[in-house]
Amino acid sequence: MSFKTYIESNKERFLSELFELIKIPSVSAVTEHNNDTRNAAKFLFDQFQSLGMDNCEICETKGHPIVYAEKIIDKNLPTVLVYGHYDVQPVDPIELWDTEPFNPTIKKTDIHPEGAIFARGSCDDKGQMFMHLKAIEVLNNNGGLTCNVKFMIEGEEEIGSDNLEAFVKENKEKLKCDIIIVSDTGMINKTTPSITVGLRGLAYLEVELTGPNRDLHSGHYGGSVANPINSLAKMISSLHNENHKVTIPGFYDDVINYSDEQREKDSLIPFDLNEFKDSLKIKDILGEKNYSTVERRSIRPCLDVNGIWGGYTEEGSKTVIPSKAYAKISMRLVSNQDWKKISRLFTEHMQNITPKGMSIKINEHHGGQPYLTSTDSKAYSAASKAYMSVFNKEPFAVKDGGSIPIIAQFEKELGVKTILMGFGLDSDAIHSPNEHFGLSNFYNGIETISNFYKFYS
Ligand code: BES
Ligand code: MN
Ligand code: MN
Predict the structure, then answer these.
(1) In testing the pocket of ligand 1, which one of 129, 158, 294, 418 has its CB within 8 Å of the most ligand atoms?
(2) Which of 140, 271, 318, 448 is 20–30 Å from 247 (CA)?
């Protein structure tokens, strides 16, 4: 039977199995959900067992468990390691969801006229990760596996993969492989596939600026002492210049400059600026001078405030000069920036621009290194052919703006490259209310991944 026919005749069951997984609210950031994350791991363990995989294991960590399974058919054949994550982002703001986040619902949209699965994790990453399990089923029932496969699915990607890092370091032999494949990124649009060859890194810090030792009456003291919120706002706004470049000294020192040829090639990647603005309901865009929107979102680093607070924010008014102001600030990094170095440069710079008479405290959250790979490999060619055979188009090689910190770690610790075969769309609203994943993206993904094995081995 062709892969397509097998998928077609089993598609309802594939979907109902995915629904079961999605219904488990495995939010890694929230401790009340610890049982749910464990249940999601158990669900996957059972799935691997019914796929006939060997050495299925729920590996304990200091945090959420990692699910491992393998099928070694012949030591002389190449080995593929599949990575994905079963944890999901929190659902807030819950009131903006049109349907229950953990009750998957099929709805048609303009972009997905055949229907899309609305639920937290439908795209990031349960839907995409689950395609890999179903691809193994497709192969098992249509000629069998043609290379060795290992699966490693974690439950802490959305909170920084700290424990996975240690697991990889301690299990190099177990994880030995020739290539890693991951579906946790996007494609250009529903009919235009892409393979991600670059991911941005991340440095995330929290700033606390302290002025007076207590909140002050804003009439009694106003105008005579510095207000930490005013000062923090000024400090933050000074982090970009008029060309929207980041002003932290040394910030761009290690940034790769792409050749004009490469930039020209990348400018052929389909992108419609009006559609982009329309989709966000913004009238204008903003970013680093002399770079296109695609470049600003992929090959250039950036700095953003993720949250800012302090003083009085409840109902009504309270006349007060707050003692403290806070902000969470993240920087997306590109090769060859190092997140530890950038975090240090940020900290030093913020200390240097702290107004006299105030004190600053800076805490480092998680970080991750950027990732870059070439299109010149057997695995890339196999992936490219696999997309061709399903979408009838050669995939574009794109650099994505998001981060999957463990991918660079895989290369460092295991010496193995990763092929990022994403099937999500920008419009799928990952991390947002009403996250969804197109049904055809799901089924085409299963077929493409199945074909990858065919062309790789
Ligand atoms: N799947 C995303 C990363 C992603 C999305 C890459 C779209 C490329 C395109 C992943 O689950 C994610 O959300 N990563 C976090 C990083 C993490 C350290 C919290 C991110 O990018 O914010
Ligand atoms: Mn993800
Ligand atoms: Mn995510």
Answers:
(1) 158
(2) 271
Residue 435 near ligand 1, beta carbon < 6 Å: no
> Is 158 a pocket residue for ligand 1 (Cβ < 6 Å)?
yes
For ligand 3, the distance from its centroid to the CA atom of residue 125, given in whole angstroms, is 7
pLDDT exceeds cutoff 90 at 219 = yes
Domains and CATH numbers, the chain: 3-199+370-456 (3.40.630.10), 201-255+301-368 (3.30.70.360)
Ligand 1 center from residue 403 Cα (angstroms):
5
Each residue of 222-255: pLDDT tens digit? 999 999 999 999 999 999 999 999 999 999 999 9
The pLDDT of 70-79, averaged and rounded, is: 97
Q: Is 330 in the pocket of ligand 1 (CB under 6 A)?
A: no
Contact 157 CB / ligand 1 (< 6 Å): yes
pLDDT digits (tens, 9 = 90+) for 413-457: 999 999 999 999 999 999 999 999 999 999 999 999 999 999 999
Q: What is the pLDDT of residue 1?
A: 87
- Cis omega (within 30 of 0) on the bond before 78? no
Distance 160 CA to ligand 1 centre (A): 10
Is 87 touching ligand 1 by the criterion CB < 6 Å? no
Ligand 1 atom with the shortest distance to the CA of 431: 13
